[in-house]
Amino acid sequence: MSRELVRKLLVASLLTLIAAVCVASFFYISQPKVVVNDMELWTPGESKHPIYINHPKGIAVVDSGKRHQDGSIITVRCNTCHTNKEPNLKTKSGDELVDFHQKMPFQHGSLSCVSCHNPDNYETLHLADKTELEFKDVMQLCAQCHGKQFSDYNNGMHGGMTGYWDLQRGPRKRNTCTDCHSPHVPAYPTVMPVFPPKVRQGSKLPDRSH
């Protein structure tokens, strides 16, 4: 077979291949696009949506007891006063205070103010090992002493939440400790049970034997 014939065969094969690719591309482009649902790419059993925790936001402030003209609360940053005062490491009650926080309720075991508040920077907290902690991370502070409650929280048995229990269907939003508990008086007050609902006339009570 001559070289000229071989060259012609190669050229013809190459042109045929190019034509086939062009025709296939035309049919591919002209076809309607099929959008793959992202659920088809998701492995069943895996968490698809996140959990949002309602951490405290912003810097630490306190109610000054005064109001703006529009009625909103005038707040004061903690270090506005505490940077100019020597910390009292033994204070355990608002009754002992003179300049601020007077009569503030405080019933939290045998703790003092600086058991949680950082005496070197009152706009932060501190752990038992003196590690500085921002107010938004207050749950870490509570978990040091309230380990059972924190464990229950992580297992979904403690603390309020909204959204989806099944994270495969939607996200979930959870409270932090101070959304429900006052950090200074964390215990819930004792309450009396209420009477059961009244039975409408003509209706029957459920069988109590079961």
Protein architecture, described:
It is a single chain. The chain starts with a helix and ends in a 30-residue tail after the last helix. It has a domain at 51-180. β2 and β3 form a beta hairpin. Mean pLDDT is 80; it is low at 27-41. It has helices at 3-30, 79-82, 138-145, 147-154, 177-180, and strands at residues 51-53, 61-67, 73-77, 125-126, 132-133, 161-163, 172-174. It has a three-stranded mixed β-sheet with strand order 1-7-6, with no helix packed on it. The chain has a two-stranded antiparallel ribbon with strand order 2-3. By secondary structure, the protein is of the alpha+beta class. The relative contact order is 0.12. The chain is elongated.
- The number of distinct helices, counting runs of at least 4 residues, comes to 5
Q: Which series of helices and strands comes N to C?
A: HEEEHEEHHEEH
Structural class: alpha+beta
Shape: elongated
Q: Brief description of this entry?
A:
The chain is of the alpha+beta class.
Any chance you could write out the topology, listing elements then pairs?
Elements: H1 3-30, E1 51-53, E2 61-67, E3 73-77, H2 79-82, E4 125-126, E5 132-133, H3 138-145, H4 147-154, E6 161-163, E7 172-174, H5 177-180
Parallel strand pairs: 1-7
Antiparallel strand pairs: 2-3, 4-5, 6-7
Helix pairs in contact: 3-4
